[in-house]
Structure formats: structure tokens, C-alpha cells
Design goal:
Layout (H helix, E strand, L loop, with lengths): L17 E5 L2 H9 L3 E5 L9 H11 L3 H17 L2 E8 H4 L7 E4 L11 H13 L6 H9 L4 E4 L18 E7 L5 E5 L15 H23 L4 E2 H10 L9 H16 L6 H9 L4 H17 L8 E7 L2 E6 L6 E4 L3 E6 L12 E2 L18 H4 L6 H13 L1 E10 L5 E7 L1 H7 L4 E7 L7 E8 L2 H15 L1
Parallel strand pairs: 1-2, 4-5
Antiparallel strand pairs: 3-6, 3-8, 6-7, 9-10, 9-13, 10-11, 12-17, 14-15, 16-17
Helix pairs in contact: 2-15, 3-11, 5-6, 5-7, 7-9, 8-9, 9-10, 14-15
């Protein structure tokens, strides 16, 4: 009689194994080391497992999801369709809303004079001297430190300032207007390369640069703009991306396009310093940066009117703190300003010389430029491993934390896909991935100006606080 096998059929091991590995990459590596196929899934516990943050995420993705998504759709629509046009050049004290005649505007979140980092202090003192309020840095320190001058964040006055730029009331500003809303925004005329205040220099030559911008560049440039057809700022930025710009760290292409547009009017100038101005404009490859920032500020201010969104309206740094603001929430969420990483330093300089990240220029990253468009710029790739793969990875990382894609800022290297738009704090906090910002590096202590450039990573803590703040408002 045959023996009955009550245990059923004997299991057979598969001849080939393929593994989907979720979590630690070392498990996938172990499988591959044994000759098997493995695919890694990049997954981690949301928000690092923090119960309060997970509760906030649950609420924003749960009972508040419909309202938040509707608000986000309107915010990204405004960021993507705003149509800022350069109107001209004006005196800051007359054009910038709420700016007094004894006011200095600075980048980043608000802070007292005692908290100003060294480059920003030097720039503020240079601005005070250009205004005629003091004749030496020491006298300017006494005027500002003594409370005779009001220090205000430029962002509170529809203005965005790069690096350590400080504006006084007689400073010239670029005036941009968003045609779809009618709101205006402003930025100073870019101060150019070399030993200048926006790089944290307060020498007599640096002060003269501010006076030159006010007394020569502003009238020549203003007259040329008045005699030329309007400049659609984002159209020029979009063209620049096709030519290797990221519109933040690299703006050579868009700058050249703007100067070509203005050339017929510029050559008709009868200003006695027109040749000096022409040399300055020809040698200032970052001229378009301030124009792009003013346009981005006009778009973000329009988007900021929408309540209940989880999209970041403002990212700004003052060299001491990094701050974000959400649309519809009139408050800052801050963390210490980060160092600039992936840095390339000028000869003779290194990390010990570097000041923390500074400037309002991160407004560009909120609508698809700068770090979001890194894959458009071979120049940016030099800071990210020296290959285009690094620049592509930076853009892909921004895709993970944004709500939409731009319809106008397209990237040739990615088959003309739109750059990522609308940084969503829910995605930032859940994945613990923060925006990357392409930027310059200033000397931290000795006023030697720009010492390098690189990529700054926004601190996670301010996005976590913003998430708590939004959840609290909607609760």
C-alpha cells in the first residue's frame, strides 16, 4: 500500500529571484551582491515619525484636503500666469510703498541691527553713506545703531533684494507691474561685479558705486526703457533657460537679450556719463537677476493673496535667519540661515571664510527658476558633481516637493518639460526634502566681497513650523 503524503505537494524554490526593496538601500545591495535583481524604493517614515507633524499632515491631506488643494491650484495658476512687465526706473523713496525718508530696506526676515551679519552691516553702512547720513563707516554705525534710521525687510514693501543689498530712499529701483492684477514690485539696479555693497563691501569705491547707479545708470537706463517697447520679463527668462541660464546664479543670456532690446535707445543717450554707463552695463552679467527677482516678487505677492494654501509664497535670508511665508498667512517661520554647500571658492578662500546664505533671490525658486531649473544650465552642473546628472537630480528633487509644472519655463535637457512650480510644505515635511537654492557666497568677517558660489539647502525646521502654523489656522 502506497504511503500517503498528508503534507501536500513539496514546495519548490524559484530558480530566479527579483526583489523590491523598500527602505534601507543596504538590503538591496545585499541582494544584488548575491547575483539577484533588486529595485530600491526610496521610502522613509513621513516627517521622521514626529507625531505632531504626522497629525498636521493627516489633517491637511484629510479633512482639509479639498480646500487646500483648491487653494493650491489657484496659487500655482497665479505663479504660472502672472505677466510682469518692466515699467521703468524710479526713486525708491517715491515709488516703494511705505518707505520713509529715513528708511533702509534689507533682505530676509525682520531682525534688529544687533543681529545683522557682517556683510549686511557693511552694506547698510555703505547705503547710509551714499544717502549722505554719514561720511565714514563708524559714523554710519552710530546713526543706524542709534535708532536714527528705520530698518525694514524689503519683502514687507513689495521689494526683493539679492545678496546683502540694502536700499535707501534715494536708491534707484526697477519698477515691475503684473498686468493680470495691477500690483507692482521692485528691486534695486544690480550693482555689478567687484568690491560692491551687495557683496558686503563698504569701501569708498563701493559707496561711489551706489552713487554712480543713482546719478548715472538710473537716468540712462530709465530713458532707454521709456523709449523702448515694454519688456515681458518672464519671456526673457524663458528664452534664457533655452540658452543655458537658470535665471538665478547664471543670467548671462537673459542679460544679453535685454541689452540687445535696449541697444537702439541706449545709443541715443545724450547723458554726459553715457559711455561709463555703457561699460558698466556691458560688464554686468547679473543685470537681469534683479529684474527677474522683481518680476518673481510681483507674481508671489499676487499668489500670496490666496488663503488656506500649503504653497510657499516667500523664501528669504538675511545672513542670520532663513524665513518662509505661506500664502494667506502674514507671518514668518524662521530657522538659522544655512551654509552654502557644493561650493566652488575663489582662489585663496574656503569654507572658513564663507558667510551663511543671504538674500531675497530664493523667490525665484518658488516659481520654477534657479535651483528648480538647474537642469537647464551646464554652468550649474559644475557645482553639482561636474556633470549634467547632478543638475538634473537637483531639478528632480524639486519636482518631488512642488505642486505643478511651469508652462513657460521649459528645460531642453529634459525634453522641454516644465520646471517645477509651487513648493508645497506638506511634501517638504513628509519627505524631509528641502529646496535647493543656487547662490553666491560672501566673505563672513573681513568685507572682501564675494568669495565663491554654490548651492544652499533650505533648513527643514522653518517648513515644519509653517506646517504647524497652517494646520493650526485651519483647525
Amino acid at each position: 500500500m502506497a504511503e500517503h503524503n498528508s503534507a501536500g505537494p513539496v514546495p519548490q524554490l524559484p530558480e530566479a529571484v527579483a526583489v523590491v526593496n523598500i527602505g534601507l538601500a543596504l538590503f538591496g545591495d545585499a541582494v544584488r551582491a548575491q547575483g539577484a535583481e533588486a529595485v530600491d524604493v526610496d521610502w522613509r517614515i513621513p516627517a521622521g515619525g514626529d507625531p505632531e507633524l504626522i497629525a498636521a499632515l493627516t489633517a491637511l491631506h484629510g479633512r482639509h484636503a479639498a480646500a487646500v488643494e483648491a487653494a493650491n491650484a489657484e496659487v500655482t495658476r497665479r505663479l504660472d500666469t502672472a505677466a510682469p512687465t518692466l515699467l521703468g526706473v524710479a526713486r525708491a523713496g517715491e515709488a516703494v510703498p511705505g518707505m520713509g525718508e529715513r528708511t533702509l530696506l534689507h533682505p530676509g526676515p525682520p531682525q534688529p541691527w544687533e543681529a545683522f551679519c557682517d556683510p549686511l552691516r557693511r552694506s547698510a553702512r555703505a547705503a547710509a553713506m551714499a544717502e549722505g547720513w554719514a561720511s565714514t563707516p563708524e559714523a554710519a554705525e552710530a546713526v543706524i545703531g542709534g535708532g536714527e534710521v528705520e530698518l525694514r525687510p524689503a519683502n514687507h514693501h513689495a521689494t526683493a533684494l539679492p545678496m546683502a543689498t540694502v536700499l535707501g530712499p534715494t536708491s534707484p529701483v526697477l519698477v515691475v507691474e503684473n498686468a493680470l492684477c495691477g500690483n507692482q514690485a521692485f528691486s534695486g539696479i544690480n550693482q555689478g561685479p567687484g568690491a560692491t555693497p551687495w557683496f558686503g563691501v563698504e569701501s569708498p569705491a563701493a559707496v561711489r558705486r551706489l552713487e554712480f547707479l543713482r546719478d548715472a545708470v538710473a537716468p540712462v537706463l530709465g530713458a532707454a526703457l521709456a523709449a523702448s517697447s515694454p519688456i515681458d520679463v518672464f519671456s526673457f527668462a524663458a528664452q534664457g533657460l533655452q540658452m543655458g541660464d537658470d535665471a538665478h546664479m547664471r543670467t548671462q543670456a537673459a542679460t544679453n537679450l535685454v541689452l540687445r532690446h535696449l541697444l537702439p535707445a541706449l545709443v541715443r543717450s545724450e547723458h554726459p556719463r553715457r559711455e561709463e554707463v555703457a561699460r558698466f552695463l556691458a560688464g554686468n552679467h547679473l543685470l537681469f537677476l534683479n529684474l527677474a527677482m522683481a518680476a518673481a516678487k510681483a507674481a508671489s505677492d499676487w499668489a500670496a493673496e490666496v488663503p488656506g494654501s500649503s504653497i510657499v509664497a516667500t523664501m528669504a535670508r538675511n545672513g542670520t535667519t532663513f524665513g518662509v511665508r505661506l500664502t494667506g498667512l502674514d507671518r514668518w517661520f524662521t530657522a538659522p540661515a544655512p551654509p552654502v554647500e557644493d561650493a566652488l571658492f575663489h582662489p585663496g578662500y574656503g569654507e572658513v571664510d564663507a558667510a551663511p546664505d543671504i538674500g531675497d533671490s530664493a523667490v525665484l525658486e518658488t516659481l520654477g527658476l534657479g535651483g528648480a531649473a538647474a537642469a537647464a544650465s551646464p554652468a550649474i552642473a559644475t557645482f553639482l558633481g561636474g556633470k549634467m546628472a547632478g543638475a538634473v537630480a537637483a531639478t528632480r528633487a524639486m519636482e518631488r516637493i512642488t505642486a505643478s509644472r511651469s508652462t513657460r519655463f521649459t528645460i531642453p535637457y529634459l525634453d522641454f518639460a516644465g520646471s517645477p512650480v509651487g513648493i508645497d510644505i506638506r511634501r517638504v515635511v513628509a519627505q524631509e526634502v528641502t529646496p535647493q537654492i543656487t547662490t553666491g557666497i560672501l566673505d563672513a568677517r573681513q568685507g572682501r566681497g564675494q568669495v565663491g558660489a554654490g548651492v544652499a539647502r533650505a533648513p527643514l525646521a522653518c517648513f515644519q513650523e509653517a506646517l504647524r502654523g497652517l494646520a493650526g489656522v485651519l483647525a
